Give the backbone structure.
Amino acid sequence: MDLQILNPKIQGFINTNIGTSISKLALQKNPFPEVAWITILNQIEAKTKAKDKLPTWYATKDIIYPAKISVEQTSSEKTALYKSTIVSGDSLIDLTGGFGVDDYYFAKKISTVVHCEINSELSNLVQHNFEQLAVKNISCYSGDSIATLASLNKKWDWIYIDPSRRNDAKGKVFLLQDCLPNVPDNLDFYFKHSNKILTKTAPLLDLSAGLSELQNVKAIHIVALENEVKELLWEIHKDYAGEVEIKTVNLLKDETESFDFVLDQQSETAHYSLPQKYLYEPNSAIMKSGGFDQVGLSFKLNKLHKHSHLYTSVDLIPFPGRVFAIEKCISYQKNEIKTYLEQKKANVTTRNFPESVETIRKKWKIKEGGNVYCFFTTDEENNKIVLICNKIK
């Protein structure tokens, strides 16, 4: 960590060039030869990425940023804040501290937080940043987290782990055993030091695959940000052997959409109908959860088809996802498409349909954009249909 980067003139240069093309800047002569040009460029690039993702860090004076990839891989402040609502108690140890965003928010809920980071340079950088952020209740430890956990020799209210995928696992099916640390193999050791573990995985992990590897899972949180699933959070409680709760959350700019259900618990079958007045498309967190029947039953909606995952109703209801008014339902036939859609502008979505959006646009010369939303899908009678809609939400 080169503290010369905190020179006010260098910091001023960094701030002036936020958003500037790094490739263009790289061709310029370094105006501050006492600091490597690549180091200054990295600060500009990383801070640019932090502007929207990490506004607290961005707005704080004398923050030092790690390599760009660390900023890309770190939690956003919004998802870190959500994580903090899961934990409680007096103590938490983060075995994979990274840039420390999660710990910053854990420390607002937990009185004692420990940040473990195997990379000593990153650990020192994070400790410096916590001082700038005026955080007093986080201790930083550099080195192997298992060794740190053993040496501290205490019982924690929570252990938090964000394993990273091993480089030699690229191209393989995503499994927790392909990550470092290997949570399934170390679970018994972790339970000696805490009864509650929260582990984060990338959205790529299949829920059933994760459940086959992990024991004692009490809840799985599926967290989306602006309708893009960002992370899966697995609550693991020692000796727990009950039902698994699925908690879906979509963090939007002005609201939070949430929908919870118990995995594999369903006493009623889904209801189906032809398209009615309104159309509902679940948000990405619900889609990832696989709770397609549960969301329809919970909101008293009818499904269009078992595999379409679109819902309909006569009356308008609040719903965690996109909502549309159905203006027209047409058959997927040449005459109908030519009359209503050919060479027109529309937003096209396919659900349980044999052709891709790209194929449909090309075939019928449908231009992208506008205020019309078209869903190419299959109804309960297995007919290929097109729903022409106006967006309500």
